[in-house]
Amino acid sequence: MNVYHNFKEWQKKLTDIRRYLHQHPEASMKEYQTAAYIREYLDRQGIPWREAGATGTVAVVTGREGGPVIGLRGDIDALEMEELNDFPHCSRHPGVMHACGHDGHTAALLCAAEYLYAHREELPGTVKLIFQPGEENGEGAASIVKSGEIDDVQGIFGLHVSSSLPTGQVTIRKGVMSSANDRFQIWITGKGCHGSTPQKGADALLAAASLAQTLQSVISRESDPLKPTVMTIGILKSGTAFNILPEHAYMEGSIRVLEEAQREKNRDIIRRMAESTAAAYSCTVKVAFTCTAKVVYNDEALTDLAVTAAEKLLGREQVGEQELSLGAEDFAEYLAVSPVTYMNIGSRNEALGITAPHHHGEFDIDEACLPVCMGMYVQFVYEFLI
């Protein structure tokens, strides 16, 4: 069944929902008003839903009884950063912005829920639509799984808009789709003193600066060059005054790999380098790690269904193979419940100047991608159930 022509007629509704959500972003695991908006929308349509944690919501569309259960996932959280755009639907919440497109995912999944519920008698099974919080901090998918509301699903499809792909194109791959990601936090403690007598102290700032450079050798000297590894140090804080040797320093970053086995090895390397560097500057150190994403592994059979759905929607020439990516995504948590597959949906439009990358203050999406997202959600259901 090809239903894409129907979704183009939903453009205005999709756009209105997306713009409202863009104006009212909320950070990870704090999406209380977003969750309320989602639940009120579902209530207006008469669609049953269940809480999955404080801000997670699972809508349930039940077709003919006795069939399989399929899950569709859309993430709902925003990023803690300032928006630099100046269009009318900019963020009204200072310091929070939908800079990754989750507002578009939510709009598409809400409209997909409405469409599927209206056509539920055609469905030989059940659809669970997962409005997931906390993708950006890596906590949300695990909270959905922990809730038990999707224990019966037999496959989960997810998608993400992509600023690298033009609108109307999609990419997917079998097997490894995105990387594992560890967040590391490092606290260095030295001994403060007056800047005029540095010999009396232990400079935590200097130790942290040295460690920030030393850690880059994890990539250049400790990692297999045939197995991609990417490290980012995003936070380095220290000091209280210009003439005092800082007693404390804090740094935070991430390290990404495509093999789970590499994760623990990297942790050991970072601990060793942190301890030896701190000791070299007469400081002590504490290191902590948090797994924010595991490797997303696309199931072969579900990926075939997604490709078929995309080809029906857009044409075979618009469906490509996704290159290996070190982008990370907590979608892999759903592997604890069922097989998954995950697709990128083009949202770039150079003619409209929509080219900024994800997690940038000028990020935007070509809203013409919204019917594609909605269409993929629904078409995948038809491929899976019918």
Question: Care to describe what's here?
Answer:
This protein is of the alpha/beta class and 386 residues long. The protein has two domains: 4-178 and 296-385, Aminopeptidase; 180-292, Alpha-Beta Plaits (2-Layer Sandwich), CATH 3.30.70.360. It contains ten helices and 16 strands. The strands form four sheets. An eight-stranded mixed β-sheet has the order 1-2-4-3-5-16-6-15, sandwiched between helices. It has a four-stranded antiparallel β-sheet with strand order 10-12-8-13, covered by helices on one side. Helix 3 packs parallel to helix 4 (102-118). It is elongated. The model has no long low-confidence stretch (mean pLDDT 95).
Output the keywords:
single chain; 386 residues; alpha/beta; Aminopeptidase; Alpha-Beta Plaits; 2 domains; 26% strand
CATH topology-level name of the largest domain: Aminopeptidase
**What is the percent of helical residues?**
25-40%
Main sheet: strands, sense, barrel: 8 strands, mixed
The beta-strand count equals 16
CATH superfamily of the largest domain: Zn peptidases
Coarse morphology:
elongated
One letter per element, helices H and strands E, the order comes to HHHEEEHEHEEEEEHHEEEHEEHEEH
Structural class: alpha/beta
Number of helices: 10
Radius of gyration: 23 Å
Give the strand content: 25-35%
- Tell me what the CATH architecture of the largest domain is: 3-Layer(aba) Sandwich
CATH C-level label of the largest domain: Alpha Beta
Question: Mean pLDDT, rounded to whole units?
Answer: 95
Distance between the termini: 9 Å
The unreliable regions are none
Major beta sheet, strand line-up: 1-2-4-3-5-16-6-15
Write down the domain tally: 2
